[in-house]
């Protein structure tokens, strides 16, 4: 299987004053690097996944804590960066997690909650569905207990920093380049 090319840029959230312009600039650089159509506009519409004005190049953004991330790819993708913070995990799991995910979580340490959350959120960004009342109707945990694919999406967890979980969901396995800017 041919792997997707994914580039993720992470920087302090304080540096993001004009997100559309930054996304477009990063998209242009990515397109030129991989010989893809160059985007000229970021298109956003209500209840629709944001996208570039050309086919063949895709993006997804996330922010958590003091960080902002933008993923760019030659295949559809969704990314989620989540800072670990105290929350009512059991209550959230009861509302948003599939029963198989809640069962899986019961036998894991507290930070495993963020693996499920980031996988689910990256998946709904990948599909463009967003968090809806259907969020608990699908499971990112496979019957063998792994979190590596869901329906038509592949998950890859990236090391970032202690206290954070970062997940990428893409249409096919990917070669991921992580660029951290200060």
Would you kindly provide a brief summary of this structure?
With 182 residues, the chain is of the alpha+beta class. 26% of the residues lie in helices and 31% in strands. It is built from 4 helices and 10 strands; from the N terminus they run E-H-E-E-E-E-E-H-H-H-E-E-E-E.
Describe this structure in words.
- With 182 residues, the chain is α+β, with helices and mostly antiparallel strands.
- Helix content is 26%, strand content 31%.
- The protein has four helices and ten strands, in the order E-H-E-E-E-E-E-H-H-H-E-E-E-E.
- The protein has helices spanning 19-33, 89-96, 99-106, 112-127; strands at residues 4-12, 42-43, 51-52, 58-64, 67-73, 77-83, 149-150, 153-158, 164-170, 174-180.
- A four-stranded mixed β-sheet has the order 4-5-1-10, with helices on one face.
- Strand 7 (149-150) and strand 8 (153-158) form a beta hairpin.
- The longest helix is centred in the middle third of the chain and has 16 residues, at 112-127.
- The N and C termini lie far apart (35 Å).
What gap, in angstroms, lies between the N and C termini? 35 Å
> Which parts are unreliable, with pLDDT below 50 for 5 consecutive residues or more?
none
Number of helices: 4
Spatial order of the strands in the main sheet? 4-5-1-10
Number of strands: 10
What overall form do the CA principal axes indicate? Answer: globular
**Portion in helices:** 25-40%
Indicate the proportion of strand residues. Answer: 25-35%
The helix/strand order is: EHEEEEEHHHEEEE
Q: What can be said about the biggest beta sheet?
A: 4 strands, mixed
Structural class given helices, strands, pairing? Answer: alpha+beta
């Amino acid at each position: 299987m041919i792997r997707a090319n994914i580039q993720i840029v992470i920087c302090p959230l304080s540096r993001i004053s004009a997100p559309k312009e930054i996304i477009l600039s990063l998209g242009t650089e990515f397109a030129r690097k991989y010989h893809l159509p160059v985007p000229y506009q970021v298109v956003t519409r209500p209840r629709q996944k944001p996208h570039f004005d050309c086919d063949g190049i895709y993006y997804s953004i996330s922010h958590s804590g003091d960080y902002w991330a933008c993923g760019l790819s030659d295949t559809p993708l969704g990314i989620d960066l989540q800072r670990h913070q105290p929350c009512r995990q059991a209550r959230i799991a009861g509302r948003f997690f599939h029963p198989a995910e809640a069962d899986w979580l019961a036998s894991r340490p507290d930070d495993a909650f963020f693996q499920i959350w980031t996988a689910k959120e990256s998946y709904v960004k990948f599909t463009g569905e967003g968090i809806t009342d259907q969020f608990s109707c699908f499971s990112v945990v496979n019957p063998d207990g792994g979190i590596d694919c869901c329906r038509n999406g592949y998950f890859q967890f990236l090391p970032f920093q202690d206290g954070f979980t970062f997940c990428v969901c893409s249409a096919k396995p990917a070669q991921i380049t992580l660029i951290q800017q200060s």
